[in-house]
Write a structure and sequence with these properties.
Blueprint: H1 2-13, H2 17-23, H3 38-55, H4 58-63, H5 69-101, H6 114-135, H7 142-166, H8 168-174, H9 182-213
Helix pairs in contact: 1-5, 2-3, 3-5, 3-7, 5-6, 5-9, 6-7, 6-9, 7-8
Length: 216
């Protein structure tokens, strides 16, 4: 049943902007651009997907099927995770392309490197926790949930960019081109993966409990 619900997410529920936002990964090739902002666009398309579901009564339709509410939450969050991980994979490929092309260092934020993927995982994990736990508390207030999650997302981005300029470790080791300081960057990637898995799973558990209590 979960496989069928996930297929419904991909075929019926997905907003058209989802694949479009994946194309925006090429922004990693833009000189002197804050590449962490690229990850925001995928969160925006997830918001559009949830908003479309509200307008089309997708949530009511889904819970009307012979499925548990918990499985409906799991399918939506699996869809979000697949999309986010696909974007991260594309960004990683384009980071390698950027390095191969010999483009100059990024002066507008974190370099397009392995650490960027780790930071992206942390940002997505935080967004999933804030957005989905708020959304499944009241699926009709999807806009409010996204505003709060977006505000915290950009607060994290701004803090990260500031630290990138004032913290010697971040400035001198993480904000460098691969393959320099790879142990530190791989450690950042590992921490990001742990944060993403932990935050997303915790978000699912709490969201499922909240959604089960919600009277639609």
């Amino acid at each position: 049943m979960l496989k069928k619900l996930l297929r419904k997410e991909l075929v019926l529920s997905m907003h058209p902007t989802v694949p479009l936002m994946l194309l925006l990964c090429v922004m990693v090739l833009i000189p002197n651009y804050p590449y962490t902002v690229v990850f925001f666009y995928s969160t925006l398309s997830l918001f559009f997907t949830c908003l479309l579901g509200r307008e089309n009564n997708d949530v009511v339709y889904t819970v009307g099927l012979p499925v548990d509410k918990r499985d409906a939450v799991k399918a939506r969050m699996l869809f979000a995770a697949l999309f986010q991980l696909l974007q991260l994979a594309l960004v990683a490929v384009l980071c390698a392309v950027r390095h191969r092309l010999g483009l100059p260092a990024n002066e507008g934020g974190l370099e397009a490197n392995t650490a960027l993927i780790g930071v992206g995982l942390m940002l997505f994990g935080g967004f999933n926790w804030v957005f989905f736990t708020s959304y499944y508390h009241n699926v009709k207030r999807v806009g409010t949930s996204f505003i709060v999650a977006s505000a915290l997302f950009f607060a994290a981005v701004i803090v990260g960019e500031v630290l990138l300029h004032v913290a010697p470790f971040l400035r001198d080791r993480l904000d460098t081109a691969d393959p320099l300081f790879m142990p530190e960057k791989l450690a950042t990637l590992a921490v990001g993966a742990a944060v993403y898995v932990g935050a997303t799973y915790a978000a699912y558990r709490k969201s499922a409990r909240l959604f089960e209590r919600q009277d639609l």
